[in-house]
């Protein structure tokens, strides 16, 4: 099995077909088809079903994606490590982030880019925490920044995926209401005095949603849902348009406050830790450097 074969296999997966993959790789489609057939012969199993003019992954093909991505990542890490010894600071940094942690790492991204201008940076922004864990497990991203409501819950996922979890901080969940609504409510607001408004929320499984649901259950309350969307960056925007209220991390409410939203702290507070996940083992030089920079940045942020 050759590195080239796995790279071309992944290109077919990521581009959704032989024609688009061949175009992206700047090779002919017959040449790409021949490479895939040779890989299938070596593995003694089909990797794709040929359907009409397209291809669909077989179960064996699905199983190959994760190991193939990790091998590609390991080769890239080896090359970058050798290049680093030679004083060459090129390469790429693949990270995934969501919610407030995404906002929090942007200064570190800027500082890293200024220090290493020849490193290409890719930032993916999945909608759910489980998507970040999946991307890091499969090697699509080396580092993932995300909230987690219960370290034990996410740590069990991390252990199963051979991941390491580093907590970087904790933020408060705040109640966000439309302009002019709830202005007479106390701050902080006892959870038992929440207004009777529909809630814009993320799906179950989202760490912030789970933290809020646990707090409401302890108070003998339940969520009256108005809108459910995994794209948490839209929650405050929906509230500003009069669609009920939302529970949002403090790092995501500043813009809403500036545009007239009514925001209250909660009593007792709902706390949401956030942190970083990475694969166990060696990181590429770029990821290792950014890891150190990000941890230092969050440490400085916590001390402010």
TrEMBL record:
It comes from the Bacteria. This is LysR family transcriptional regulator. InterPro entries: LysR_HTH_N, LysR_subst-bd, WH-like_DNA-bd_sf, WH_DNA-bd_sf. Gene3D superfamilies: 3.40.190.290, Winged helix-like DNA-binding domain superfamily/Winged helix DNA-binding domain. Residues 1-58 form the HTH lysR-type domain. PANTHER family: HTH-TYPE TRANSCRIPTIONAL REGULATOR, HTH-TYPE TRANSCRIPTIONAL REGULATOR GLTR. Belongs to the LysR transcriptional regulatory family. GO terms for molecular function: DNA-binding transcription factor activity; transcription cis-regulatory region binding. Keywords: DNA-binding, Transcription, Transcription regulation. PROSITE patterns: HTH_LYSR. It comes from Rhodococcus aetherivorans.
